[in-house]
Amino acid sequence: MLSLVEMKKYEYLDKEKLKGFDNYKYNSVDTSPISVYISHPFWNWLVQFYPRWLAPNVLTFGGWALVMGCFLLQSLIDYNIDSNSVDSKSAPIPSWFWLLASICTFAAHTMDGTDGKQARRIGASGPTGELFDHGLDSWSTVPFTITIFSVFGQGVFSVSPVRLLMILQSVQTVFIVTHWEKYNTGVLFLSWGYDASQYGLAIVYAFTFVVGFEWYKFYVFGGFTFADCFEIGFYLCCIGSLIMSFWNMWDAHKAGTLQQHSVIEIVRPIISTIFLYVISLIWAEYSPNDVISRDPRMFFFTMGTVFSNIASRLIISQMSSTRAELWNHLVALYSLSAFLSIYVIPSYEMFILYSMSLIVLLAHVHYGVCVVAQMCDHFKIDAFDVKYLNKRNK
Hints:
Layout: H1 4-8, H2 15-22, E1 28-29, H3 33-46, H4 56-77, H5 95-122, H6 127-139, H7 141-149, H8 161-185, E2 188-189, H9 192-211, E3 219-221, E4 224-225, H10 226-255, H11 263-267, H12 271-286, H13 291-294, H14 296-320, H15 329-344, H16 349-379, H17 388-393
Parallel strand pairs: 1-2
Antiparallel strand pairs: 3-4
């Protein structure tokens, strides 16, 4: 049996990727009016008050922990995402939760926005922190989406679990396309929707605390409920992000700066994501036991964890300027689980989902811990401590 230390020392990154990280330079473009005129001025002011011993990755992890913590807390209160339903037999989500969610969302966004500024302020910036930041962000797509739609519950004046899966996929698409775009252009064009969505979530949560979840139970026009319109808003943001990403890649092609030079290489990084989306929809739609309705939270979390693993590997490839992976092993496991559940042993479907969820979670956490540890060893730094800077300055 491998010890915990030996498991942590497993090396996922080969020499080519580590060499690529040695030559990495951060290159981003952020033209969002909200970022330029609100977020960055506020963050630039706030970061001055951070103690210089505060490691940027502590901010990153702390922000992610707030988001995931709210998701886990809500799992205890409203596991099946139906407490706020019109015909719910259980008590609705208590109003104090929405105030807490609003505070945590704003605080998490602030910590996520100031971690890089703190790193540059104390001289600790580097690819490890950026990878850690974006890797955790990819995992946050699940709590962001599920928590906000828990306001509506299920049934009338809400969306079905399958539609909620499609909404989650639209959020994940905005994230993955941004890094797919950087893989092909060499530039990270930050989405206008990110800052807007974070402030929007915090405002909606605070508004829900004040007026109550019942306020959203109405028809906007015809048969369209508020939840329907909210859903359409997510799709419009996704479409807008796709259009901008394709435009930026086409612009890079015309300028001769496109990093990949064939259609196959251009689309290679998103094959696993597309496959994950298709398998998820097939499983949700054709499940013999309606698995997505019986345990929607576990279904979304598992799918989101596989997505995060795909995204993290793409981020590594684009940062190290190496060829992206065509296929993800967790997608293979996920696909096998869906196949067994639908066609082979449907009576064990829930057991398959729970078993696969645990395996996927452990595999993803192991991958993340080992990659960060390997990069820290390579760059001779500590992930959550900046005392190494004192040694460098001597």
